[in-house]
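Q: What would this chain look like folded?
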Amino acid sequence: MNMQPLPTVEELLWSWPAVCKAAKDEWAKDFALSIAKQSRHKNWTPSTKQHALMMRMVNEVYRHRGDFDGRDDFPLIED
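A: My prediction, written as structure tokens:
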């Protein structure tokens, strides 16, 4: 069983601008913008449900972008 720690809020917010841009339906856009606004408040932390949704949305962005998912992500420098 893989027991990796949950991403921190700071880690999720690092990717949040990409999530805001990638949100397709109205609900996702509203949620993403709401989190972006709330996160600017001092000592803000998401609820458990918000944190779970944030993780899903960040994961979805990277799943579709395909970042770092193959051997060809970084060209090899050969002598």
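The two ends are 41 Å apart (CA to CA).
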